[in-house]
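Sanity check

After download, print the first record. It should look like this:
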Amino acid sequence: MPVRLDKEGAVGIIVLDRPPANSYDYAFLRAFASAIDDARVDGEIRAVLVTSASEKFFSAGADVSAFAAGSPRSRTMTALLAHEAFRKMEHTPLIFIAVIAGHCLGGGFELALACDLRFAAEGSYQIGLPEVNLGLFPGSGGTQRLPRLVGLSKGLDLIANATTLKPAEAKEVGLVDRLFPDAAACRQGAVEYVEKLAAGPSVAIGHAKLAITQGYGAPLDLGLAIEREAISRVFVSEDAEEGIKAFTEKRKADFKGA
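Expected structure tokens:
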């Protein structure tokens, strides 16, 4: 399988494993979407990492050879599937973190942009959206997510100039949230981060994520409506009952993620 879901305790780990560069085709995207579905339904998983089995690549993006061999319709449907697969992460009440330690380009970076956070290892590899070099543009969410992350003019500048950045540069402009000295430290830092979330009130964290991601950029009244819906779901959770009870009893809460 080009994508698999592993587990370490309460942490789901989606591993991209399509040598040599984790370039994605239609089958890869279906496997990726399936891994997200499996993480969603697994009651033990409370946070998810997206990593690569390759030491050199997180993902080089769309498989250009498959595009070359395909029809305009197949290319369009592949892009549609990428939109649907990546959007699954944003619609899931779990935190997703992209763990980047190799080239993260084009659709590979668009995948990372759809994650909630991006942790990266220092190195000489490149991060960015160079699609205009092929006479295309980032069509798997990049034109929407990148400007929302770094601002309208900066996002346009990066896309129009096919700019790729080293990890430290990417951190400086806000493409990467945390930077670690090497791949091992990056993965360990990501694991520790999500393990802390998984041990806490993951129901509340997950629904806060949905309120933030779905309400961001919306009119305030719509964002507040989304928030009200989310908090009403959290109020009936076992974790909320436990958290309130623990506070009144002056003890540490024992959250179960339910």
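If your output differs, re-run the checksum step. Summary of this record's structure: The two ends are 31 Å apart (CA to CA).
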